[in-house]
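Translate structure to sequence.
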């Protein structure tokens, strides 16, 4: 079966599956009872095609708009344009001078002419009653008026489907519809033949069973839909920096209104349509909207920013003009959301299992009906009544047909693929509480097979709470981790060097020091920038004063490939100065001079160079992150279009930043190692810093290799084959190095790889990996978009928790499959063999429907929602080639099936003598005992399925309230069916002795499996231990 599933249903991957593979498996699913329910959680490929067509249309529209705007720009240079636009009365009454449609046509149409007619960006800001400096004035009344005129920044979402919609979908089951028709005929014929109410019992019993199945199924599906809705809301929680009332603050993107001033930086998603106000080196990736991969340069001349696009490089201030469904992104998003997520590999495989068993069940159902019908025809032929048919005969034939249809109901395990969804929904909800937000369903199950985790250092293994604790300025190495030591540093550093140092810190930064709503100074920016700005403030620096002393001419934002950031300042006294900071050894290699202890610029001779290098190594050896700051004078002739030369710098100083290892990381790494998961650190930091942190975390061992990115890049394929399995630390790595490592691990070594990332440049590696893990705090929106799971607390221990949940999902689905296949096999064989042997089916349609609910919805609830246990992380990972239906599962399925079949068959043949049955109700009593035995065998099979290998199946059962509730409900309802509603279920009340005997017999089902496992797990052999002969018991 495994090879058949792999050949026909194995084309769907955990991510990036081809459309051909998605279409192929759908065609193979020929036996489907309820397509609406079965394929509810699969991708809508037709809607995806619509979205792609819309993207192509957008691409063409924007291409034409860009060409027109460029031509218009050349034409209107120097021409004074007059606007003929008439402001709508409702807009004017609200206090604005431009309507939503006009704003939309300017930005979406890239209409330079219209923009100029309205006075450019400043003119639009005035007409929106906002300030490009201080932002909106946010009184509740004014914000409400803006939303009424321009709309809200929210997108159309699919409505929450009511419970009755799920009831209607559950009723679409073909077999249930046929059974309902049988019930109706049975009802009519029964009432005609036997009158009311006796003649209606069989028909009403089937109807009641159908309704029970439908409502239980609909309740389960409805709860799942609510869980997914809650998770979707969590995925859409995105915050953005804005200026309102003159203060920088963070708000939800859904609270944005036209007139807001938004601050965008590298990795952000543009939250609404808008216009560029000011910024540096801004490159926008519009591929999500247009499919065009080439980034667009946005500046004052070409100021149009579109919602849904991403900042690939640079930073800017943006004026929001159009929001929500008025944007092109809003319209596209509505179509994209209808496309849905790809189905997961497990869902597809289980659809394959359901199809195979469904075909077998259909075959057995037809044969069973044929055998039963042939028996009836033979009897009537022998009695010479072949042409004489009574109502009883018709009812009997109808009952045979209903049994055959019900066998199909039981045999087609429609619940198998849906059990995956149920388990995933349950796990995703619980993982949210454990600080992991799952964006793609498949990531849950794939993480359970992970064999390698490639983790970042900063913020994942460390706390990301950075402080500068050491500094080397003017060759003076000092500790600066307290205010007294900072004052001490100031006394050793000449004023000229201190002034240059502060100028570098406050100008060459991606952070800001702002005054918050409480009137206090607040530092905004990455933890590294925050640490440097805190040092600058503690040295007596004034951020705003420093920024006003010089003019910022050019900014080259930090780049993880170049590993540096640079700016050019126009000095107040004349001339230009470039500042640069970044990886210490890279910046130091670009320096020809340094600032000596006197504060003068001196040539960087060998002694000074060795001193600075040893300082870097010393800081790195203490697990400090090192940064080098440098500057150079570049004369009077510099333009913002010129490149900043990377040579001839003067080293100002080196700082050592402390980023402590997170609590519990070492234990989590040890847990991974015990679970067969290799943890590798991939970082852009200095190799000595990386090695020190890796040893502290327990990642780097004596057998492991630590390598730098540049050295890794130079290796050929043969060398990489030998090297990659040993790599435990990769330092000074570029995003391409990470991508290459991940690709080789997956393709050359068949590893299942999980990768963490937080930056924009990590997107390719996150996309390439089997599971992309983005950081929720430090991660950019681009990284989050590319990821499968978002680690909300940026903690490595949470990644281990995700792995544990992944394994739990995989095991839970295996348990449910084992349980359901056992019921399938026994129900099929018992009804078929009994039909062939005695001419009767021991389990009626109503009884089989009840069994179907036990094994389908209730079984999934009980087994697919087991919480993870710690011992899951003490077994080897499944990996990429592991069998889903393992040999252990086949052993359990066949063992239980054989035992149950023998038990039911023994009762069928010897039950009358065993229970000393006689009288008119003998057959009905025996069938009731058979039915009761069968159901309680499934109850103990359910308990037994909690552990596929271990003997103690009751461990932790009292902590699983869902399992207990399902178990108790099944037992109680079974008792009610047998003792009180026998007229509808074709049962008769049993005596106390019969209940006691059945209890002993069904307990043997569990004991049988325990014994089988015990024999399989253990064997005895003799060993010598300390000179004595002993008997030792070990697992096989």
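Result:
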């Amino acid at each position: 079966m495994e090879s058949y599933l792999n050949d026909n249903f194995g084309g769907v991957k955990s991510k990036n599956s081809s459309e051909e593979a998605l279409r192929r498996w759908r065609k193979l699913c020929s036996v489907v009872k309820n397509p609406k329910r079965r394929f509810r959680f699969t991708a809508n490929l037709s809607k995806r095609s619509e979205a792609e067509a819309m993207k192509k249309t957008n691409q063409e529209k924007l291409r034409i708009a860009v060409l027109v705007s460029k031509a218009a720009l050349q034409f209107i240079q120097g021409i004074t344009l007059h606007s003929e636009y008439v402001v709508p009365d409702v807009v004017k009454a609200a206090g604005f001078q431009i309507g939503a449609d006009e704003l939309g046509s300017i930005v979406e149409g890239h209409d330079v002419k219209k923009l100029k007619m309205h006075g450019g960006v400043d003119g639009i800001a005035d007409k929106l009653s906002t300030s490009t400096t201080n932002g909106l004035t946010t009184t509740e009344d004014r914000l409400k008026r803006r939303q009424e005129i321009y709309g809200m920044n929210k997108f159309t979402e699919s409505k929450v489907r009511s419970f009755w919609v799920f009831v209607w979908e559950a009723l679409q089951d073909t077999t249930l519809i046929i059974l309902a028709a049988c019930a109706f005929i049975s009802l009519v014929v029964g009432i005609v033949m036997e009158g009311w109410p006796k003649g209606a019992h069989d028909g009403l019993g089937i109807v009641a069973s159908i309704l029970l199945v439908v409502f239980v199924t609909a309740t389960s599906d409805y709860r799942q839909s609510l869980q997914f809705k809650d998770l979707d809301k969590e995925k859409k929680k995105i915050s953005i920096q804005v200026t309102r009332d003159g203060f920088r603050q963070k708000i939800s993107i859904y609270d944005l209104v036209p007139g807001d001033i938004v601050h965008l930086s590298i990795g952000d998603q543009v939250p609404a349509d808008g216009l560029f106000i000011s910024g540096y080196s801004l490159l926008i990736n519009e591929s999500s909207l247009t499919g065009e991969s080439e980034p667009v340069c946005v500046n004052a001349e070409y100021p149009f920013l579109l919602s849904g696009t991403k900042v690939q490089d640079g930073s800017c201030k943006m004026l929001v003009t159009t929001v929500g469904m008025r944007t092109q992104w809003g319209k596209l998003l509505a179509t994209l959301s209808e496309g849905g997520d790809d189905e997961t590999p497990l869902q597809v495989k289980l659809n394959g299992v359901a199809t195979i068993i469904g075909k077998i069940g259909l075959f057995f159902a037809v044969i069973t009906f044929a055998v039963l019908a042939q028996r009836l025809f033979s009897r009537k032929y022998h009695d010479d009544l072949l042409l004489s048919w009574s109502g009883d005969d018709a009812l009997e034939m109808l009952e045979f047909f209903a049994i055959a249809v019900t066998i199909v109901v039981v045999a087609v395990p429609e619940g198998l693929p849906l059990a995956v969804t149920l388990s995933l929904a349950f796990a995703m909800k619980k993982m949210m509480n454990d600080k992991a937000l799952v964006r793609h369903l498949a990531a849950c199950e794939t993480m359970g097979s992970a064999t390698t985790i490639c983790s970042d250092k900063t913020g994942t293994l460390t706390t990301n709470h950075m402080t500068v604790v050491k500094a080397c300025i003017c060759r003076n190495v000092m500790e600066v981790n307290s205010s007294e030591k900072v004052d001490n540093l100031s006394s050793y550093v000449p004023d000229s060097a201190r002034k240059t140092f502060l100028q570098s810190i406050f100008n060459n930064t991606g952070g800001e020091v702002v005054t918050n709503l409480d009137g206090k100074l607040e530092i905004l920016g990455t933890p590294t920038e925050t640490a440097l700005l805190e040092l600058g403030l503690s040295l007596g620096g004034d951020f705003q004063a420093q920024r006003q002393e010089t003019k910022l001419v050019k900014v080259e934002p930090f780049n993880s490939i170049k590993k540096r950031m640079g700016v050019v300042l126009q000095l107040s006294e004349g001339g230009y100065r470039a500042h640069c900071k970044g990886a210490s050894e890279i910046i130091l290699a670009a320096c020809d001079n340094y600032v000596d202890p006197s504060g003068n610029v001196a040539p960087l001779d060998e002694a000074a160079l060795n001193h600075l290098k040893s300082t870097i190594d010393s800081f790195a050896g203490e697990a400090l992150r090192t940064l080098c700051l440098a500057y150079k004078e570049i004369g009077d002739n510099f333009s913002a279009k010129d490149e900043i030369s990377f040579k001839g710098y003067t080293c100002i100083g080196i700082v050592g930043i402390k980023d402590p290892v997170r609590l519990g990381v070492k234990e989590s790494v040890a847990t991974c190692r015990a679970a067969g998961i290799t943890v590798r650190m991939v970082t852009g930091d200095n190799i000595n810093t990386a090695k020190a942190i890796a040893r502290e975390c327990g990642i780097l061992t004596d057998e492991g290799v630590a390598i730098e990115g540049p050295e890794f890049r130079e290796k050929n394929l043969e060398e990489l084959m030998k090297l990659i399995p040993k790599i435990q630390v990769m330092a000074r790595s570029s995003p391409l190095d990470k991508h290459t490592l991940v690709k080789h691990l997956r393709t050359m070594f068949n590893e299942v790889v999980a990768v963490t990332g937080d930056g924009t440049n990590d997107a390719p590696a996150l996309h390439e990996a089997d599971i992309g893990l983005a950081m929720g705090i430090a991660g950019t929106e681009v990284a989050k978009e590319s990821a499968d799971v978002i680690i909300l607390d940026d903690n490595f221990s949470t990644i281990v928790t995700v792995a544990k949940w992944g394994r739990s999902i995989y095991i839970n689905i295996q348990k449910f499959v084992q349980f359901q296949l056992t019921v399938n096999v026994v129900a099929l064989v018992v009804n078929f063999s009994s039909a062939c042997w005695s001419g009767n089916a021991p389990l009626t349609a109503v009884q089989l429907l009840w069994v179907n609910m036990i094994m389908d919805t209730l079984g999934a609830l009980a087994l697919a929602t087991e919480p993870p246990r710690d011992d899951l992380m003490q077994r080897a990972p499944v990996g990429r080639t592991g069998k889903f239906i393992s040999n252990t599962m086949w052993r359990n399925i066949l063992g239980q099936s054989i035992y149950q079949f023998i038990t039911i068959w023994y009762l069928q043949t010897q039950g009358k003598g065993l229970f000393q049955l006689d009288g008119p109700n003998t057959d009905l009593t025996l069938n009731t005992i058979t039915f009761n035995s069968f159901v309680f065998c499934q109850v103990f099979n359910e308990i037994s399925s909690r552990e596929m290998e271990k003997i103690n199946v009751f461990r932790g059962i009292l902590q699983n309230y869902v399992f207990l509730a399902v178990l108790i409900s099944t037992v109680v309802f079974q008792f009610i069916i047998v003792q009180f509603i026998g007229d509808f279920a074709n049962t008769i009340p049993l005596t106390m002795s019969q209940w006691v005997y059945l209890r002993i017999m069904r307990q043997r089902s569990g004991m049988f499996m325990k014994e089988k496992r015990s024999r399989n797990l253990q064997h005895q052999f003799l060993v010598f231990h300390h000179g004595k002969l002993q008997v030792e018991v070990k697992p096989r």
